[in-house]
């Protein structure tokens, strides 16, 4: 506690031998952050400049990649500062802000994937109605809701936590995730129930909707022509792989606060960093290689001499 300015500081205690390996940590994380920005931005750039990519599916992909960059930007700059600092600390208010943005953007990821699933469902199962249903207005509403709903819901626990009495000032993490609750003296039943409702709204329900949608697509594709099945596989498989990857990482983040004592510190650090390293790099690789039109434009961008 800083009495002069009445600011509460929290120590980020999840680092492993940062004094010994600070420059190695810094170089690796800095390179990964640059790679995340460049890879995601390249595909967003291609979607922006090419008219044939101005379709709802590609707009949602661009939004998903932008979301990944924003999520990384919430975490990486602070990590880089901490690696070069003697003390790894953060003010409690800044910690709650990071907590809010991290989980808001995480919820947005699920809602954007749900919007993409609905887009694929209409495209494959109701192709004649697709231009009428997936208009620019519909896409804009989906995008606004995908970012607004999680932000407004996660703001409640973040705001309530600001007034909670703290009994610990050491966070067993390298950034402010749900281990923030371990700092509080008491976590009320009402707070737990409210967080479960948020988890249901911005994660579980979208996942169930996505699974239901892709099941319908699978059934209808199976009954249709080979061309329809091929189209469904090409466009739906990348979305499903991204969903599975992100869901597994989020499941780890949710349960780690309950099992933190069972994980060695080094394992916990590696797993925590995977949440913010693996997924933002997985998205552009998956969409860049698996989506035919994006892959074609990437080849033209990087290998123009080889394209006839």
Kindly describe this structure:
This protein is mainly alpha-helical. The protein has one domain (9-300): Rhopdopsin 7-helix transmembrane proteins (Up-down Bundle), CATH 1.20.1070.10. The protein is built from nine helices and three strands; from the N terminus they run E-H-H-E-H-H-H-E-H-H-H-H. The chain has helices spanning 18-49, 56-83, 92-125, 130-133, 136-161, 189-223, 226-256, 265-290, 292-302; strands at residues 9-12, 89-91, 170-171. The protein has a three-stranded mixed beta sheet. The longest helix is centred in the last third of the chain and has 35 residues, at 189-223. The chain is globular, with a radius of gyration of 21 Å. The N and C termini lie far apart (65 Å).
Primary descriptors:
globular, mainly alpha, disordered N terminus, 9 helices, Rhopdopsin 7-helix transmembrane proteins, 74% helix
């Amino acid at each position: 506690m800083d009495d002069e300015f009445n600011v509460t500081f929290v120590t980020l205690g999840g680092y492993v031998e940062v004094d010994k390996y600070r420059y190695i940590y810094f170089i690796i994380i800095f390179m990964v952050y640059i790679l995340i920005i460049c890879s995601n931005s390249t595909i967003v750039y291609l979607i922006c400049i090419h008219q044939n990519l101005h379709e709802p599916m590609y707009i949602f992909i661009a939004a998903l990649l932008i979301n990944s960059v924003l999520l990384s930007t919430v975490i990486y700059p602070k990590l880089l500062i901490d690696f070069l600092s003697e003390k790894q600390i953060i003010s409690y208010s800044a910690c709650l802000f990071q907590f809010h943005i991290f989980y808001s953007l995480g919820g947005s990821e699920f809602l954007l994937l749900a919007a993409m699933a609905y887009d694929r469902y209409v495209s494959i199962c109701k192709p004649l109605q697709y231009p009428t249903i997936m208009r620019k207005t519909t896409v804009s509403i989906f995008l606004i809701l995908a970012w607004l709903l999680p932000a407004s819901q996660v703001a409640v626990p973040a705001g309530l936590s600001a007034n909670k009495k703290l009994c610990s000032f050491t966070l067993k993490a390298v950034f402010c995730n749900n281990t923030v609750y371990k700092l509080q003296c008491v976590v009320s039943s009402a707070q737990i129930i409210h967080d479960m409702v948020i988890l249901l709204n911005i994660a579980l329900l979208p996942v169930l909707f996505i699974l239901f949608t892709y099941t319908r697509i699978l059934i209808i594709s199976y009954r249709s022509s080979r061309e329809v099945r091929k189209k469904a596989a090409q466009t739906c498989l990348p979305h499903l792989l991204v969903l599975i990857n992100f869901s597994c990482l989020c499941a780890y983040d949710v349960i780690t606060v309950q099992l933190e004592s069972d994980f060695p510190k080094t394992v916990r650090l590696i797993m925590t960093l995977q949440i913010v390293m693996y997924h933002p790099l997985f998205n552009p690789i998956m969409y860049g290689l698996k989506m035919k039109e994006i892959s074609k434009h990437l080849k033209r961008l990087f290998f123009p001499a080889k394209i006839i």
